[in-house]
Amino acid sequence: MTSTPHQEQSASAVVSLRRVSRTYGEGTGRVAALDEVSVDIDRGGFTAIMGPSGSGKSTLMNVAAGLDDVTSGEVMLAGRPLTHLDDDARTRLRREEVGFVFQAFNLVPTLSARENILLPFELAGRQVGAEQQRWIDHLVLTLGLGERIGHRPSELSGGQQQRVAIARALASRPSVIFADEPTGNLDSRSSREVLTLLRTAAREYGQTIAMVSHDPVAASYADRILVLADGRLVGDHGPLSPQQISDLLIGFEVGAA
Ligand SMILES: Nc1ncnc2c1ncn2[C@@H]1O[C@H](COP(=O)(O)OP(=O)(O)O)[C@@H](O)[C@H]1O
Ligand SMILES: [Mg+2]
Predict the structure, then answer these.
(1) What pTM did the predictor assign?
(2) CATH architecture of the domain with range 42-66+87-253
(3) How many CB atoms within 10 Å of residue 220?
(4) In this predicted model, what pLDDT tens digit does every residue of 138-154 receive, in sequence order?
C-alpha cells in the first residue's frame, strides 16, 4: 500500500476519479470504455455527463458508484477510497452514500410506491426515525405522489414511477445521486417535471446529482456539463443552453453508433 498512497479528496468533492481506466475484453476485442479519466464532482452540484453512445458515460457512473471495478486508477467516494475496499465494505458504502435513478425506473412491481421509497432503509436494516419520516412525507407531497402512495408501479404513469424512484433516491439524503438517462423513457412533459425536480433537489436541498444523458435538453438543466468521447473527458463546462450543448456535441458524434 505504501507504493500507492491514497489520493486526498478535496473537502468540496463528493466523488473523485484519479486517472481511472476501465477496459473490457482482451486482444483485438479490447475496448477502453474509460481512458485515464480524472474529475471531481463537488457537493451540491447538478452535473450532466454527456457524450455519444458508447463514449463511456454509463461506465463512468458505474465505477464512480462502485457498481463496476476499475482496471487502473482510483475512485474516492464521500472521502473513502472506494477502489481499495473489499466487496462488502463497498456495498455498505454504496448503500449509505449513493442513490440511484435509472431509465427503467427499477421499482419493485409487487411493492406500493410507499414501500418502494422505504426499501433502501429496509435493505440497510435502518429504522426510519421521526425526522426522516417528516422528510419522506415532505418529498412525497412535493413530488405530487400523495394520492398515489399506496399504488403499485403498474398503476402509475411513467412520470409518476420516475418520481417514486427520485423520492426513493432522495429519502436517505445520500452523498450523491447517480441518474442514468432518467428521462429516457418519458414523454417531454414528464421529462421536464423530472428534470425540474432534480434541479430543485440540488438547489434547495443541496443534493449532489450526477446525471448521465445524451439529451441536450436534459443537460441544460444541469449547472455543469462534462463531455466524454471515446472514454476520455473532452469537455467541462458551466451551464449551457440546449443549442449550445448540441453544437458542442456535433464534433464528437462522428463515427459514433
Ligand atoms: N460489460 C461490458 N463488456 C464489454 N464491453 C462493454 C461493457 N460495458 C461497456 N462496454 C463497452 O464500453 C464502451 C462504453 O460503454 P458505455 O459506458 O455503456 O457507453 P455509453 O453509456 O456512453 O453509451 C462501449 O464501447 C461499450 O460497448
Ligand atoms: Mg449508457
Answers:
(1) 0.91
(2) 3-Layer(aba) Sandwich (3.40)
(3) 18
(4) 999 888 898 999 999 99
